[in-house]
Amino acid sequence: MASLSSPTTLTNPRFFISSPQNIFKPKLQTLILTTKFKTCSIICSSSFASVSSSTTEHKLPKKQTLVSVNKREEEEEEEVVLQEIWREVQGCNNWEGLLDPMNNHLRREIIRYGEFAQACYDSFDFDPHSKYCGSCKYHPSDFFSNLDLHVHKGYTITRYLYATSNINLPNFFQKSKLSSIWSQHANWMGYVAVATDEEEVTRLGRRDIVIAWRGTVTYLEWIYDLKDILCSAKFGDDPLIKIELGFHDLYTKKEDSCKFSSFSAREQVLAEVKRLLEYYGTGEEGHEISITVTGHSLGASLALVSAYDIAELNLNHVPENNYKVPITVFSFSGPRVGNLRFKERCEELGIKVLRVFNVHDKVPSVPGILTNEKFQFQKYVEEKTSFPWSYAHVGVELALDHKKSPFLKQTKDLGCAHNLEALLHLVDGYHGKEEENRFCLVTKRDIALVNKSCDFLRSEYHVPPCWRQDENKGMIKNGDGRWVLPDRPRLEPHRPEDVAHHLQQVLGKVDDVDDPKPTTT
């Protein structure tokens, strides 16, 4: 076994924090969580009307629910900035008082973390005719700029995450039809990023570590690949904590012969979180830290599993300052992940989960259609019968209805109800249960984004369906005037000895890295 006691050299600039308290503990003071903002209201009309340019330039047809611009100024005693209430926005009080009516800071943060998850789709190579199918199209250094996500440029991606595709989820993984490809066994699964820009750290009120997991944008059929069979998570000491077998395999399996997935997705994310917490959590600058995990669809499942894993291993505990870094999950359209005991353990560990979903989406209703958190005797059934198909959602729910948006058409396409961009559109227009018939886009998020990968907008907006694609499918003219697909910069996996060093600190043991097996791509 290799000696892994020697520390590895880190090249990133160092920043430190020195706050001894539990940073998820809210301050003992009265906070005014509303700010000065302009609002709109929903009206019904049978006459032709147009939407003000402050909301959108498009026009709506006759006999339709309309968004009108009845603006009013709401004067408040004081304006509250995000850095003052970030703990509440991250769920320290389970979002009490922030969802109904919808707090605008929370709205923007939900959308921002949703965009972190959406970036996994927009950067993923789905083309089966590409030798890079199943990989990320962009280098970490220019990831956000290539996606035109300027608001996210305050973050630096520190690691890409991969999983072996050699597990039984055939409708999830993407594989090239070509023989010479970037990897025979791996698929890109997401990334870990950290807020490094000091202005962004100040705006957020803390240094934020983000883990974003990729879901699947092209199929819903992956749901049918799931066996709905629970297995013991085995991340802690309680064998009664169980998660769905397919999620468990995706998170924990690895392929020794592949350099991208010689460590499992679990090992990759644990090692990187350990490295970043060591890096930023041991010194003098006073920045507090948060861990935010996000994902859509199957990615939401991985987000919850990895958040539980980090908390169960006590990885978010910073011994130098003796406090725990808060863990928040922003889950979008996710299925159920584990049993009732899994749900209870997540709550015991203080993991805060906000589940955002469309009520017409079928994915959040599975697995556990018969026995779930709504079943009165679920706890008895689990404890007395070891029923293998008992599932429970975790966290606070934000249920949205696409039929409330006047921009969206009625459709039977299940993919539209499951679409992440459409869900973020609904977040932007939602104002609370008491105003469920009112729909106004507060951040004025471009409605064209809804049709990025589906056909959901009403036809009068003249936005083509599934419009987002690479120019010329990535083909360029070379010096000879011929069209070719250029090679991408080669992405090297992280050095195994670096991963193994931090993994040993977390799990106590790793495979021998002094005598590694031969690896391929």
TrEMBL record:
Keywords: Chloroplast, Hydrolase, Lipid degradation, Lipid metabolism, Plastid, Transit peptide. GO terms for biological process: lipid catabolic process. The keyword Transit peptide applies. It comes from the Eukaryota. It is found in: Plastid, Chloroplast. One of its GO terms (molecular function) is galactolipase activity. Residues 210-369 form the Fungal lipase-type domain. One of its GO terms (cellular component) is chloroplast. SUPFAM superfamilies: alpha/beta-Hydrolases. InterPro entries: AB_hydrolase_fold, Fungal_lipase-type. PANTHER family: PHOSPHOLIPASE A1-IBETA2, CHLOROPLASTIC, PHOSPHOLIPASE A1-IGAMMA3, CHLOROPLASTIC. Belongs to the AB hydrolase superfamily. Lipase family. This is Phospholipase A1-Igamma3.
